[in-house]
Amino acid sequence: MEYSFESLQRQLHHLRMSETSKELPAVLRKAESHSWTYQEFLRELLTYEERRREEKMIEKHLKWAKFPYQKSLQEFDLKELPSLSERQLKQLQELFWLDESFNLIFLGPPGVGKTHMAIGLGLEAIHQGHHVSFVSMGELVPLLKSEEYLRKSQLKMKRIREADLIIIDDLMYMAMDQNETNLFFHLINHLYERSSIILTSNKGPEEWGELLGDQGIATAILDRLLHRSEVLHFNGNSHRIKYRKSLFQAKSVQS
């Protein structure tokens, strides 16, 4: 039985191998020029399909993560963070803490690299096959409050709850009322020992009780967050101020 080239492509597409279907002409030409065996040809096709599926999965997970920007750990200057050694950074990159559902809490003033480090670890997790969700506290509170009646909020919260790693940025940047505190507690309670959480905050845990407005709930939240966690203190001057761009400097260079 003879098969036309187009019918082979249709079959590949039917088998949900659309990427391989598109690449088939190039692979066939390569096979002919290198006199591949059937086994070599098949291996090349399957390897290509596997690689493209992995790339598309990473693209999808990056889209779902909702990072405000993408900065890798390779771009992080450890000289700016003397409290973290190169060995410790490598340990974080290995993601053993994620496999064990440990939390990471990054504390320090604004602009010292807390969010950069969190996003870098989030990117690493995605490339290692994990689901990641990034949300700022300013976004999270309205989502929690509107989840009951807004479909969009329900979908976003579903992804957050199902993620392997949740990054909550700018925790406790402002005071919360009783309802907001209760909703936040229920989220943390749901995630407890199911997922890993990275928190960034410019306020220490000792200040959270006042901002949450309820010392009892604050204690319960802290208990769940700190039970299995590593706290990293980011010190130093703001990178944004140190590397800020000046309008007048730019104009003087041009002139």
From TrEMBL:
One of its GO terms (biological process) is DNA replication. Residues 100-232 form the AAA+ ATPase domain. Keywords: ATP-binding, Nucleotide-binding. GO terms for molecular function: ATP binding. The keyword Cytoplasm does not apply. InterPro entries: AAA+_ATPase (IPR003593), ClpA/B (IPR001270), DNAC/IstB-like (IPR028350), IstB (IPR047661), IstB_ATP-bd (IPR002611), P-loop_NTPase (IPR027417). It comes from the Bacteria. The keyword Cell division does not apply. Pfam families: IstB_IS21. PANTHER family: ATP-BINDING PROTEIN RV3427C IN INSERTION SEQUENCE-RELATED (PTHR30050:SF4), CHROMOSOMAL REPLICATION INITIATOR PROTEIN DNAA (PTHR30050). Belongs to the IS21/IS1162 putative ATP-binding protein family. This is AAA family ATPase. It comes from Radiobacillus deserti.
